[in-house]
Amino acid sequence: MSEEKSLNFLEEIIEKDLAEGKYKYIHTRFPPEPNGYLHIGHASSIHLNFGLAKKYKGKCNLRFDDTNPTTEETEYVESIKNDIKWLGFEWDGEYYASDYFEQLYGFAVKLINKGLAYVDDSTAEEIAALKGNIGVPGTNSPYRERTVEENLRLFQEMREGKYKDSEKVLRAKIDMAHPNLLLRDPILYRIKHEHHHRTGDKWCIYPMYDFAHGQSDSIENITHSICTLEFIHHRPLYDWCIQQLEIFPSHQYEFARRNLSYTVMSKRKLLQLVNEKHVDGWNDPRMPTVSGMRRRGYTAAALRNFCDTIGIAKRENVVDLSLLEFCVREDLNKLATRSMAVLDPVKLVITNYPEGQTENLEIENNPEDENSGKRTVPFSNEVWIEREDFMENPPKKFFRLGMGLMVRLKGAYIVQCNDFKKDENGNITEIHCTYIRESRSGNDTSGIHVKGTIHWVSVAHAKTAEVRLYDRLFRVEDPSSEDGDFKDYINPDSLQVLPQVFIEPSLAAAKPGEHFQFLRKGYFCVDTDSSAEKLIFNRTVTLKDSWAKEQKK
Ligand code: ATP
Ligand code: MG
């Protein structure tokens, strides 16, 4: 975008910090928990964190926030790295919160030694019962006054595996009457005898998010730790830990989570869709995941442009899916090779064109890109056209085919319809036309002007492919805010498979990941399951631009 954009609130903070000499350079991080695949909301956070580092010539780390052994897996780590690279970003350091377990343990010991943490034998229910409520102070735990020595010994024993899950926890000793409930002696460590995807069985105590995140930021000298708004109430605890531990003062800033219409974004919900087979895996082209969007044919440039356009906000809202589609069309228009495919075919016979003759027409690959060249498209006396391009009783402004009507076959000739055949059910089986010999595209001396141009594929030369058409995954704009289970709102027609579509022969060599515009039908991308024997195309997006229309209203 060319116009000068005003600074967002984070850029304002950073520019002030740099101007005041608070930091020599900024250091951000993207901290995914490896418990699922990245989605478009993460892409927005990636774009923000990596983008700020780039803009201000700072650094951005990739840190896996892997402190919960129950849900984390190496498969997710690999997919996350792959998606970030594909989005076009490079991290400065690759870190894992689990690499800091020893250091974090040391931090906890330091708090115990300062009299600021204690081991509590209360059950989760007891702890909750003593917590109080908003406006109602909590009550001190009976274990709160344990001596430093006893706490050190018990914490050590927790680490050594002497206790069962949930038998003990380590808590910060702050203030059970604090107005912010998160500061009423928050839990710092819990016992979990579980295998961790990186540390194996070395640990059976794991730090809580609040005792891992800020400290990890601090260890990495992160200057601006950007997270989503739900952590705003955690910020005082973030600051408290850093102050008490006297470590590098990272600061937390919050921005609003990005949501997209007609989908869900929480990894927990996406995992349900995968596990219950509502979709074909995390990278199903209907998923709002980065890998799903890639498989569908969305480009990294389109996603970056989308993130750039929506920017950041301090208040949550739902971004319209059609804005994302607009960005995808804009990019694909520049790079997708044009070609012809007939999705719902009916045969058109040119009665005055010699049978058995083939003409090799040269048709532009992409009128938007003068370097894209031309491709050869064979033409003969029988071609497939779309069923919807013919009407037995066409209305007045139908600029396609019907008895007596004329249309141009893209890149070829003008044809006029003068007969058609039907089967016993009334379905059109064949359309008969004559062609105007002098009307060949590029050398048209016929003097005839027609309003409509339709796409076609020569019957004798056609190849076949499977085409998958996608619609929104949910029937309602915001399935998470509806009554009942969000899965009740799944769109049952979100996938339509056309097993045998006729495509022009140049498409036979198409490789997975390649982008095409099928004339008048949309942008398509070769699916990852596609092979030379069985070509599969995903419709990335239709050509219609409903978002731009919305804007003009
Ligand atoms: P989810 O709710 O989807 O499970 P999460 O917050 O648990 O997401 P993390 O792996 O912890 O997922 O997220 C990594 C980073 O991405 C965090 O900094 C988080 O704030 C950010 N992030 C997650 N979802 C969104 C979103 N919808 N919009 C913007 N940023 C997001
Ligand atoms: Mg999270």
List keywords for this structure.
binds magnesium ion; 13 helices; alpha/beta; seven-stranded mixed sheet; Rossmann fold; elongated; 553 residues; binds adenosine-5'-triphosphate; Ribosomal Protein L25, Chain P
Report what the structure shows.
By secondary structure, this protein is α/β, with parallel strands linked by helices. The protein has three domains: 22-255, Rossmann fold (3-Layer(aba) Sandwich), CATH 3.40.50; 310-337 and 465-551, Ribosomal Protein L25, Chain P, CATH 2.40.240.10; 341-455, Beta Barrel (Ribosomal Protein L25, Chain P). It contains 13 helices and 27 strands. The strands form seven sheets. The protein has a seven-stranded mixed sheet with strand order 12-25-26-27-23-24-13, covered by helices on one side. A hairpin with a 5-residue loop joins β19 (414-422) and β20. α2 packs across α11, α7 (209-219) crosses α8 and α11 (300-310) crosses α12. The two termini are 22 Å apart. It binds adenosine-5'-triphosphate and magnesium ion (MG). Adenosine-5'-triphosphate is lined by residues 31-33, 41-42, 44-45, 65, 227-228, 257-258, 265-267.
